[in-house]
Amino acid sequence: MTVILLCVLVVPLWLAIGTIVSNADQIAGWVRSLSSFEVPPLRPGFAVFRFSATTWWLRGKSSR
Fold first, then answer.
1. pTM, whole model, 2 decimals?
2. 50 and 42 Cβ atoms separated by less than 8 Å
3. pLDDT averaged over the chain?
4. Any residues with CB less than 8 A from the CB of 27 and at least 6 apart, and which?
């Protein structure tokens, strides 16, 4: 029973933590790059869809 518990719980957790620790520099680089990330402007066709979807959602919420 102990061996099964080790195989099912401890070993995958140990491997996950080891993977995170071994890639900590790369993860830190990703986090630092988020400060300079900019969302590109929305294309005109999607703006119309977003407006109509928002209007539809608000109408449905107000009718309840």
1. 0.50
2. yes
3. 83
4. 20
